[in-house]
Amino acid sequence: MSVVSEPGAPRREVGGLLVTGSALPGGVFVVRVVGEVDTATAATLVTGIDDALDRKPAVLVVDLSEVAFFGSVGISALIEADRRTKCPMRVVVTPAIRRILGIVGFDALLDLYDTLDEANAAA
């Protein structure tokens, strides 16, 4: 599976994890993640988020809607990114990822959305 991103936008692929970035109107930057986030691939997620933060977006959206596995290192990467960002960060999650974040209590720390459209429409 591949995700289309704008020409010149960040694109990283390692060990079955694809991370792409694209700018949307209004200063929104979306980091799309496809595959499995585990100890072998977490650094790719972190680098993708760092690339997005280097662009100084008004809003950062991390789209995990196509992530099949999300390990504890992925949770750590999200929490660390949320601490580093100076803009609102919205995370699009699957029901399974929402459940994982809820079990560890991080659902209260992150702004979670069910769809990319909902995350983009949030005020």
TrEMBL record:
Domain STAS: from-to ranges: 27-123
GO molecular function, one term: anti-sigma factor antagonist activity
Xref: InterPro entries: STAS_dom (IPR002645), STAS_dom_sf (IPR036513)
Pfam short name (any one): STAS
PANTHER family documented for this protein: ANTI-SIGMA FACTOR ANTAGONIST TM_1081-RELATED, ANTI-SIGMA FACTOR ANTAGONIST TM_1081-RELATED-RELATED
Name of this chain's protein: Anti-anti-sigma factor
